[in-house]
């Protein structure tokens, strides 16, 4: 395995990084010269980027046959749309290096947790926005081929009464007349309303007892997908707090509350779904 790191530059930021875990071909394993790829956007309420939702998740997907990438995007005091542009640049770079990194450019998935899920959903639904075109990005180049959302924030209306830091940031921004003029901020506050038939197939998972990002976020996004006939899978687990990541001992948090055995199947379920979405990928399920 080769680990690569790129500094991502956009018109508004230079601090984001893209880390790739690249499995190089071997004569002992023929047919593995072009793997599917997955870009992971960890959560953190747009105030930090969680380590628990970064490398451990990347390595878990690597073991299932993916070339995996972690995006460490800009957080406060950086302002929107810096993270969105960095996500666009990350997908662009992954596809631009498809030959170098032994991946299939038409099998690029993006997985986001919590605020990172908001970012992944924003890129997937807003890829064709004129603002991104003005920045030099074409929708087909930056839109993922599949979207995976773990306890993601997608709707301010569904989240504003909760403990979500990322929803709080969006609400504060929209209430500030100057910030409310930031590109695509209003659209980003209600991503289900931005879903179209061009939105990629989506895998959603959440827990019914999440008090930080209510499960309603996943439900309204799934409803929006269904309305335009975009394929999706939705898994709501009966218990578990916010920020579970892999939900096992590997990603256990400092307080020890982020181990939930009933939720660990989400990873295998997502791999099964990705194999259905990318039938030629040979994903380990």
From TrEMBL:
Highest taxon above the source species: Bacteria
GO molecular function annotations of the record: hydrolase activity
SUPFAM superfamilies in alphabetical order: alpha/beta-Hydrolases
Record Gene3D superfamilies: alpha/beta hydrolase
Source organism per UniProt: Schleiferilactobacillus harbinensis
InterPro entries linked: AB_hydrolase_fold (IPR029058), BD-FAE-like_dom (IPR049492), GDXG_lipolytic_enzyme (IPR050300)
Protein known as: Alpha/beta hydrolase
Domain BD-FAE-like: 32-225
Keyword Hydrolase: yes
Keywords carried by this UniProt record: Hydrolase
Hydrolase recorded as keyword: yes
One Pfam family this sequence matches: BD-FAE
């Amino acid at each position: 395995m080769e680990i690569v790191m790129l500094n991502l530059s956009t018109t508004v930021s230079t601090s984001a990084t893209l880390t790739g875990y690249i499995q190089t071909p071997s004569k002992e394993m023929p047919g593995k010269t072009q793997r599917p790829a997955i870009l992971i956007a960890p959560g953190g309420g747009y105030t930090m980027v969680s380590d628990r939702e970064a490398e451990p998740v990347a390595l878990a997907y690597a073991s299932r046959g993916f070339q995996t990438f972690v995006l460490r995007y800009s957080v406060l005091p950086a302002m929107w749309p810096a993270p969105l542009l960095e996500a666009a640049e990350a997908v662009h770079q992954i596809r631009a290096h498809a030959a170098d990194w032994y991946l299939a450019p038409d099998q690029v998935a993006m997985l986001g947790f919590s605020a990172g899920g908001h970012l992944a959903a924003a890129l997937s639904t807003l890829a064709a926005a004129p603002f991104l075109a003005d920045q030099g990005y074409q929708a087909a180049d930056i839109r993922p081929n599949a979207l995976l959302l773990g306890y993601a924030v997608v709707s301010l209306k569904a989240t504003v009464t909760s403990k979500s830091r990322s929803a709080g940031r969006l609400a504060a921004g929209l209430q500030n007349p100057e910030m409310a003029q930031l590109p695509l901020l209003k659209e980003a506050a209600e991503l289900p309303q931005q879903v179209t038939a061009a939105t990629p197939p989506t895998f959603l998972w959440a827990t019914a007892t999440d008090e930080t990002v209510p499960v309603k976020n996943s439900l309204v996004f799934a409803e929006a997908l269904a309305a335009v006939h975009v394929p999706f899978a939705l898994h709501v687990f009966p218990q578990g707090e916010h920020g579970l990541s892999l939900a096992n001992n590997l990603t256990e948090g400092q307080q020890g509350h982020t181990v939930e055995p009933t939720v660990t199947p989400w990873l295998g379920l997502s791999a099964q779904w990705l194999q259905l979405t990318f039938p030629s990928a040979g994903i380990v399920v």
